[in-house]
Records
---
Amino acid sequence: MPKNKKEKKPKMQNITINIPEIYDENIQKLIKMKITASRSEAIRIAIREFLHTEYDNLKILGYFDSTGQNKNQ
């Protein structure tokens, strides 16, 4: 969420995904418990955490140099 009025929200891309029914049921429980506001928000959080984890793993494995650039390019 923007910290001030001048800061812009990131542009969103609309995509369609298929997830197991149990995932959706559990997301709906989180929404009812007010842990997340919507399915979209829950999925954005999950993707963000996945990307951070994978990026950190690749850094540990030496795929990025000290500036964060991919060594394989």
Note: Residues 21-60 form one domain.
---
Amino acid sequence: MLNIIPLWSSIDGRLLATKVSHISGLYDPVNIFVIYVPAQHRERIEFLRSFLTTMPFDQLLTSRSVFLGDFNHNIHTRQSNPSLAQWFQWIHLNWHDPINADPEHNNIPTFRNISTIDFLLITADLIDMVDNHDIKYVARCDHSAISTYLTLGCPRTGPGIWRCNPYLAQGPHFRAELTAFCTNAEHFLPDLDTPLLWDIFKCRLKSFIQSFSNKAAAQRRHNLNKLQRMRKWLLRQPTDDETNAQIASVESQLELQYEHSSSVLALRSGQRWREQGERSNTYFYRCLRQRQQQQYISSIRTDTGTVVTEPLDLTETAREYYEQLYSPEPMDEQATSDLLAHWTR
């Protein structure tokens, strides 16, 4: 549902600029800038000193912009090097850090358990659009995932066709609840014909599975948030063998949670085969987005040749088309009389 337009890239690939918009214009485009600052001290100093003359911010940085990446230093800690004064002044005048502004996430390490070097910044006009933000542990990675949710527009697609999640059958608790539901079905089903009774049973079964899934998903979110909070709390404690062991235990539990989420995401994306342990969520999200784009009608051409894209116009055009398609045409009385007159007995 997104249209990503590359705008600019540095020769070494450390600076990228792109514009993101919705294919149906649900919201105004957003500029996204990605940076990867060198890790070595001398290279980092030279890179930041020449940064403002390298990146074409003058033409792009007006509003609705996001600046993110691996900065390899804490932008909220002043450096003693005077040559970086212009860099820090530019950062704090033009950008807002919604994650660091939250006391819950302030100074949480984003690289291993040591330092805060990854940031996601936004311009001032997007501050009111921030819905949520978080720092999460990512299994098999030395960087944490930082995220900010922006409310830019409302979706125009519905929930689609419902299908039961087959991974539910792997849980003994679900199997026991399902067995009890089917066993007690005769007590809540009316006395009707078998075909109608079967349809009613399927509707009741769908409601039961959806209710079970919603409760299970809420419990998983609760457990995941609890584990993330526990890890953040442990990171703030003095480092010793016991604390490191507790962090490792929490991270192993988080890895199990992410494995389940990746399996469900792969299922939603329509990928029926994947390597054992594969968790390329970026790939799965891309496949899921492609499926949604194939199911979504962004424009319709009318009989007059006009292309409509607005939701109300799309609905009205579709209604007129199907109304004409399924409306019976008036009978030609003269043609009927001629046919009957020439009917050969």
Note: The longest strand covers residues 2-9.
---
Amino acid sequence: MAYDYINDGNIDADALQKGIKGNKKARMLQLLKMLNEETDENHPLSTNEIIAKMKELGLEVNRKTVKDDVDLLIAFGYDVVIIKSSNNSFYMGERNFELSELKMMVDAISASKIISTKASNSLIEKLQHLCSRYQADELLWNRDVNISIKPYNKSVNLIIDKLTRAIGKKRRVNFKYNEYNMDKELQPRHDGKVYDISPFFLVWNEDHYYLVGNEYSTKTTKTFRIDRIDGSSLVISKEQAVRKPERDLLLKYSQRTFSMMADEKNERNVVLRCKNNLITIMVDRFGVGVDTKIVDNNHFDLTTKLYVTKGFFSWLAKFGDDIKVISPPQVANDYKEYLEKILKQYK
């Protein structure tokens, strides 16, 4: 039988606390909490220190009970490391996450343009509980570096939650989509058009978080920035979502898309002639499995499927004459026109 220990006036709090202090299970839990929060490889606790801390909490322990409790934690799979001496010391060794893994997560959260400052701080605080208090301080030194790029949309978490539930239930979603006006204020796009979307998945791309789904009216795959979705208008429809396309759709978007606003109608098989110094950049962009062929001592041809957009042309332009579109001819011509329009502004 379970009990809720809520002091509603009918429970004697002092008696309850007395029961906890004399409880061996409470002692064990307190030791586990102490090892998790206050120890690491550089900050072990000695037997005497543990006894002193336990007594401050009103828990009666001695050297034998500390040893027995540590042995039991080890038997249950906790990586409690024992430093042998006349006054054994202990620290929590392997945890669910290495410090380096927590650091990467904290830095990713801090740098994210989708997660608000308040939400970032909340997530980071939760991650801090997964290491010692000493290590927790090491996670925070650059937490506020990216504070100026944080979003204004405070309902992002609720939007993500609703979209995730809709995907799980295979339901369509309806929402308005925002854009900035010249006063830098968000306003509904296309006079407040309500989009009817079958959500496929959420995906990170170029520092932003996107919804990829099928628009009911046009029967095409479209993408929407999560932080531009109007949270107040977002509802999960009762209508069944269309069936998801092939499983490699996410891979296609990550490898072929230079703008998440790309239209799948613009997918092309493109051949790019690149100077050899670009090989690392091309592998980073398209993956180690991308089709390449040596042309001469200075060049290689790269063949891949991608979405031809202004974003793709903008990406090409930054490489100058180190890269050239070989085929298809229409893409090469479109890229030429793209560059000519830019040059006209400087004539």
Note: The domain at 13-92 is CATH 1.10.10.10 (Arc Repressor Mutant, subunit A).
---
Amino acid sequence: MDAQGRSIVLNNLQTLRAIAAYSVVIYHCLMRFVRPEDPIGMAYLDLPSGGVDLFFVISGFVMVHTTRDDETPGWFATKRIARIVPLYWIATFVVIGLVLVREWLFPTTLVTPESILASLFFVPHLDAAGHVYPILGVGWTLNYEMMFYALFAISLFLPRAFRLASILLLITLVWAIAMIAGDSVFTRFYANPIIFEFAAGCAIAYALRAPAVIAFVRATPMWPLALAGFAALVILPSLLGRDIATLFKYGIPAMFIVFAAAAQDLYRAPAATSVITRLGDASYSAYLLHPIVIAIVAQVVLLVAGEGLLAEGLILAATLVTTAVISTLSMKYFEKPTAALVRNLVRRPRQVAGH
């Protein structure tokens, strides 16, 4: 327990991270053979599509939950850069290398000096197919994450009582400016209401500090709320259709799910540590590395088994297992050591200067 009597074990959230990451993996495997003209296939494709929305709501919650009241914007930014950038840059350069050697592995990836710089520094830009994807396609979500981190860092200049309001205001300003500004890749990207999912996660974290909410959580089982959220995550996409913003189809159900999971972790009974929670701990590696795994695994399976539904099933199974193994190793031997190294390199000069 922490000083407020809350559990510091967030295994339910780690479980959600694993669900989110591997939903995205399954989605990208299914995209290989589901065709837009196939309504049944597209319905199945909708099922795992909410993984990113879960990630965004969780991200907002975690930023509030793990940031100290006296944390400086500079130190917050250092921690986030140390956590996000090293693996993303490595994965980006791996894709660049694969494109240069085997371009057909990533046929829509655009590798130019401009696209490399834009990808590395989280600037939205178009790929060869006209979509707003960086060189490592899944990195589009990191463009949103970095925007959110910048706004969150700004909020740290203010007293704690004003931070949630400032985050809501800043995200609304970004969205409003993008909506009314001239048409461009940049404005279209940030006009997506999906950015409000970060604010929702922040609001959940602050709500779970309120005495009335804490009392409600301690007196009320959380599993019906989580179950309702997952049911909505399955049902709403079919009811609302593909043209409705993901904030409404996936984001709102994700908010209920994250609230229930976080409340269960903090004030009721956190889940036991398990294989799934460990996969959740390595979810960032799984998210970034799985496109590379899919590209390579698919070529091996197609070479051995040929094309067909069986081959696609083998690709899915092999991708899930390979991603789980590689991401666990990446988290243990690259992510955590690299993040610690960067934090120590930044902290050490500050300590020396203090003497």
Note: The chain has one domain: 11-354.
